[in-house]
Structures are given as structure tokens and as C-alpha cells.
Amino acid sequence: MSTPDLDPEVVATPEPGAVETPPKESATRSRPLPARVWAQTQGKVGVVLTAAVVLVALAGPLLAPWLTGYSPTEFADRPFQSTGVFGTDNLGRSVGARFLAGGLLLLAYSVLATALGLVVGCTIGMIGGYAGGRTDSVIMRLNDIVLAFPQLVLALLAIVVLGPHGWVLVTVIGLTHAPRIARVARAATLGVVSEDYIRAAEMYAVPRTRILAREVLPNITGPLSVEAGLRLTYSIGAIASLSFLGLGMQPPAADWGLMINENRIALSVQPWGVILPVLAIAVLTIGTNLLADAVARATESTTVEAS
Amino acid sequence: MVKLILKRLLVSVFILLAVSVVVFAATLLLPGDPARAILGQQATEERLAALRTEMHLDRSPVERYLLWLGGLFVGNFGTSTTTGGPVAGLLSERIGASLILMLCAAAIAVPVGVAIGIYSALHRGTRRDQAVTWSTLTLAALPEFVIGIVLVTLFATSVFRVLPAVTMSPPGQQVWEIPSQLILPTLTLALVVIPYIIRMMRATMAEVMDSGFVEMARLKGVPERQVILRHAFPHAIGPVAQVIAIQLAWLAGGVVVVEYLFRYPGLGQALIDAVAFRDVQVVQAVSIIIAAVYVLVNLVADVVGILANPKLRSAS
């Protein structure tokens, strides 16, 4: 689950010299962010890997009965046989069908959790950074309390009290991301508040909420999109880990994390039940992480050009 | 500087108190009667009442919180709802097992991460450096249980069968008496932490190697090896120390999944079992221990950061 929690800078900041020579400035200046991400090897590989797994996760549930002949919860044979392409799992269900059906919820929950974290974290961070003073310090201290828990421990605490429901997973993962995102949003906001256009808006007596939404937010999307990619990677890891621990998605649901847990006792006899979901989770998280890294490099080049 | 450290210490104490409130509040939210959970459905009213008084369930929430908090300081972590025994006894031997695991992982991850980071920084822009960058990006993305499963497949079940896939210590024997079963869990934790140390070390070292004093040393004719070890490295290690400490703090939470994966008899395994049985007292105790370790190591990280920052040093 929670991959080590770090300043996003350490994880995703481009390091000088690591990139192949940056594209010519004149070529990048006017290009939109997606194009600049695609221009990098990391970006291309990231997009391809992520898209492949997302495609499997989205189309899989529909294709599973048609491709394998079994539904994800239907018994195909005795346990751990090599029926069909990938054999059967611990209860004799088709591994292929369960693999195809097992990514959708993981993906949906991770995206929802990341979105929740972004909305809450962004709001808190921007208010803290813009308001400053006491509001800022109160918000940041509350942040520190949430940050004092390893993410997984807080998630387990929530699950023991509220039970392993989908909304609990999404809420607790999202809310534990929020303070981490808030720190990034706050730092980015601090870099923007002293700009002339903010002061101009203040002089025109534009309401503060409107300043935040219309002046600050559009100018901090760079660091926020890097953070979003990173948090998505961690959300996928976190939710898959909880399912692996038996505390996320509950049986008989088909889910990659749960599949690994169910089938790992037979790893040496019938490895497909473990290998397929492990590969899928690995490729997905590597893809999103490469994407986050590419976005970081792309946004970095804009800030350099802007200054 | 001392003032800054003291202030940071005070903040940590407050955070720990707040953490304890959050953890305690979790029990209050829980439906059901813990006394009945321990004694079972057939328990008589008198026995229930007696146990409730013993567990202070008849007091107000604030009183219960203070009693619980006071108990923590004298090592009284409450009564387990599953076993009916004291939580402290259940956890005491597991804390050692978890600490061993964390220390082994740290002992491997820190030198390896620092060494590869420096190597990568010194070969900046080359193929070898790019290979390191790609591997760290890949490894940093993987959840720890994925790394663990891959290691198990490689070394325990499918490819080479050289190491045990799970921990199986006979009762009464400590885990570290069979060192081979420590290898895979340690390796898993180390592999999760190493990429972050590498990236930070590489970035800092690269920056330092570009600085004026390194160029000066080279111009003086100092041998390159000495430039790296005597001039550049001491400057780079300050900021990296903080990242290393944050990573070690992460290990406190990271052991949970890894212990479950390898059936390692540590705190994390106890936590997962307790969550599965809804044994709140144990969950509370383990969460507060893990959070305490986490806060403590983060405190050390910040103090190291303060000590390593020359600007703050001269200010006092």
C-alpha cells in the first residue's frame, strides 16, 4: 500500500541531465501539455502501459464471459486445474474470467479516491496559502495530525470501525491523500499570491473565492497535475494492497488484489491466478508513475520558459 | 537552534496527543458492547456489569480516554476482545520481531541507496545513469506486496527454490534464530525504500558536483576520489539524511503488508488479524505504537535537518 510518502519533488522532479536533450524551445513554447508529455520517452511508455491496463479493466467485464466461456463467479472445474487458457482458481472459478473482470472496481475506486483527495486537498491548500496567518497555521497543524499516521494504519482504523465497504475505501484513501496534496497546493499558491494579477483582482474587489477559482487555480495546475498522477499511483497501490489484505473488496467479487490473496497458496502449482493480477497492477502503477514523471518534466519546461 | 529543536519537540508531543485522541475516538464509534464480545452471548448480567466496571465502560468518554492514555504510559494497553488476555503481553514479543525487520531493511537500503545514487550522479546523462533512473521510476511505482510476490515467485516457489516463502518459527523460538526466513521480507522492504534514497542522493550529489568548491578542489589538483569523498559527499549527505529518515519512518507502516505477506510474526500481522476479528483494543494499541514510531522518526529527521542546515547553525 502507501508507497513511501515523500515530497513529490523527490519522486517526480526532473533532474538536470537525466532527460535526453530537451526539445528545442521554439518547438515546445506553444505546444499543449499532452503534446509535451507525449514528446518524452517516459510519457509515451507511460501512456501506452496505462492505456493497455485501463482497456483491459474497462472492456474486461464485458468480454470475460464471451472470451473465456465463464462468468467471474461461475465454477468451471475443480480448484487449481489447468482448464481453459489460464486454469482455475482456489474455488475452481476461471482465472481468465476473473482477471478480465477484476480491474474495473480497482480503477474506479482509485480514480474516485484521487479525485476526492485533489478536491479536498486543493481547497485546503489554496485557502491556507492565500489566507495566510492564523488560518494557514491552523490548517497546516491539522494537516500534520493526519500526516502523523501511516496511510495504511489510518485506513485500517477506518475499516475496523466502518467495515470494508467501497465508500469507506474511497473516502479514507482520498482523505489521507488530501493533506499531502494540500501541501503542494499551498506551496504553489504561495508562489502565485504575490503576482500582480492577483493584486489587480484584489483591487477590483473580486470576491476571494472567485480569486481562488479564477486566478489562483489555473496558475497552479502544473504542480497539481504532477501530484494527481503520483497520488493516482499511490491510490491504486493502496486499494490493491487493502484488497490483498482481505480488507478491501470482499469475496466473491473478482478483484486483482483479492485474487492474489486467494491464489497465492498455490503459487507453485497454478501460478496464473497470481501472476496475471500482479502483472496488471504492476504495469498499471508503473504506467501512471512514468506518466506523472513525464508531466513533471513537461510542466518544468513551461516554468523555465515563463521566467 | 536549540529553541527551534525544542519547538519541534513540542509540536511532536501535541501531534502524538492528537493521534491518541483520533485512535481512541475510533472505539467510541464502534457499535456493540466490548464486554459482551469478550464474554459471549451466554454471559450473565452480573458478570457483564463486573467486566464493564473493570474495563471502565461505565465511565464518561473523557474519563475513559484519560484512563486509557494513562495506561499507555505504564504499558497497560487494555484487554484483547478475541483472547481476553492483556494486549501488552500479546504485542511485547512482536515489537522486537518488527524492529529487527525494520533495522535489517534500513541497514541494507541506506548504504545501497546512497552508493547507487552517487554512482548515478557521477555518471550523469550516460546510459548507466538512465538505466538507474528508469529502474527507480519503475520500482517506486510498485506496491510492496507486488514486489514481495515477485520475489517469492523468483526465490521461493517457481524459479529458484532457495528461500522460505513464509516465516515458520516453532513456538517459543524467535524469528531471527532462523535467519534465512528474514531474507525475503527484508529484501522486499529494502527494495521499496531504495529508489527514493537513490533519487534524492542523485539529485543532491549532482547539484553539489556542479558547485564552485568542487571545481576549486579539482583545479587545486585534488585527486578525483578525494574530491568526491572529502569535498562533495559531506555536503550532499545533509539533505539526504532527512529523506532517509522519512523513508525509515515509512517502514513503520510498510511492515504491515510485508509481514502479512510473509506471515511474519510482527506487529503488522497482529494488526491485520485484529482488524479481521474487529479486536479494537489491539488495533488501537498497534496503531498508536506505529504512529509513535512514525512521529518519532520524523522528529529525528527534522532535527537532523535543523542540525545539518548551516544557516540555522550560524543564526544561534
From TrEMBL, chain A:
<dbReference type="Pfam" id="PF00528">
    <property type="entry name" value="BPD_transp_1"/>
</dbReference>
<keyword id="KW-0472">Membrane</keyword>
<feature type="domain" description="ABC transmembrane type-1">
    <location>
        <begin position="107"/>
        <end position="292"/>
    </location>
</feature>
<comment type="similarity">
    <text>Belongs to the binding-protein-dependent transport system permease family.</text>
</comment>
<keyword id="KW-1133">Transmembrane helix</keyword>
<feature type="transmembrane region" description="Helical">
    <location>
        <begin position="269"/>
        <end position="292"/>
    </location>
</feature>
<dbReference type="GO" id="GO:0005886">
    <property type="term" value="C:plasma membrane"/>
</dbReference>
<feature type="transmembrane region" description="Helical">
    <location>
        <begin position="45"/>
        <end position="68"/>
    </location>
</feature>
<dbReference type="InterPro" id="IPR000515">
    <property type="entry name" value="MetI-like"/>
</dbReference>
<dbReference type="GO" id="GO:0055085">
    <property type="term" value="P:transmembrane transport"/>
</dbReference>
<protein>
    <submittedName>
        <fullName>ABC transporter permease</fullName>
    </submittedName>
</protein>
<feature type="transmembrane region" description="Helical">
    <location>
        <begin position="99"/>
        <end position="132"/>
    </location>
</feature>
<feature type="region of interest" description="Disordered">
    <location>
        <begin position="1"/>
        <end position="33"/>
    </location>
</feature>
<feature type="transmembrane region" description="Helical">
    <location>
        <begin position="152"/>
        <end position="176"/>
    </location>
</feature>
<keyword id="KW-0812">Transmembrane</keyword>
<dbReference type="InterPro" id="IPR050366">
    <property type="entry name" value="BP-dependent_transpt_permease"/>
</dbReference>
<keyword id="KW-0813">Transport</keyword>
<dbReference type="InterPro" id="IPR035906">
    <property type="entry name" value="MetI-like_sf"/>
</dbReference>
<keyword id="KW-1003">Cell membrane</keyword>
Automatic annotation (TrEMBL), chain B:
<keyword id="KW-1003">Cell membrane</keyword>
<dbReference type="GO" id="GO:0005886">
    <property type="term" value="C:plasma membrane"/>
</dbReference>
<feature type="transmembrane region" description="Helical">
    <location>
        <begin position="134"/>
        <end position="158"/>
    </location>
</feature>
<feature type="transmembrane region" description="Helical">
    <location>
        <begin position="240"/>
        <end position="262"/>
    </location>
</feature>
<feature type="transmembrane region" description="Helical">
    <location>
        <begin position="178"/>
        <end position="198"/>
    </location>
</feature>
<dbReference type="InterPro" id="IPR035906">
    <property type="entry name" value="MetI-like_sf"/>
</dbReference>
<dbReference type="InterPro" id="IPR045621">
    <property type="entry name" value="BPD_transp_1_N"/>
</dbReference>
<feature type="transmembrane region" description="Helical">
    <location>
        <begin position="282"/>
        <end position="308"/>
    </location>
</feature>
<keyword id="KW-1133">Transmembrane helix</keyword>
<protein>
    <submittedName>
        <fullName>ABC transporter permease</fullName>
    </submittedName>
</protein>
<keyword id="KW-0813">Transport</keyword>
<dbReference type="InterPro" id="IPR000515">
    <property type="entry name" value="MetI-like"/>
</dbReference>
<dbReference type="Pfam" id="PF19300">
    <property type="entry name" value="BPD_transp_1_N"/>
</dbReference>
<feature type="domain" description="ABC transmembrane type-1">
    <location>
        <begin position="95"/>
        <end position="301"/>
    </location>
</feature>
<dbReference type="Pfam" id="PF00528">
    <property type="entry name" value="BPD_transp_1"/>
</dbReference>
<dbReference type="GO" id="GO:0055085">
    <property type="term" value="P:transmembrane transport"/>
</dbReference>
<keyword id="KW-0812">Transmembrane</keyword>
<comment type="similarity">
    <text>Belongs to the binding-protein-dependent transport system permease family.</text>
</comment>
<keyword id="KW-0472">Membrane</keyword>
<feature type="transmembrane region" description="Helical">
    <location>
        <begin position="99"/>
        <end position="122"/>
    </location>
</feature>
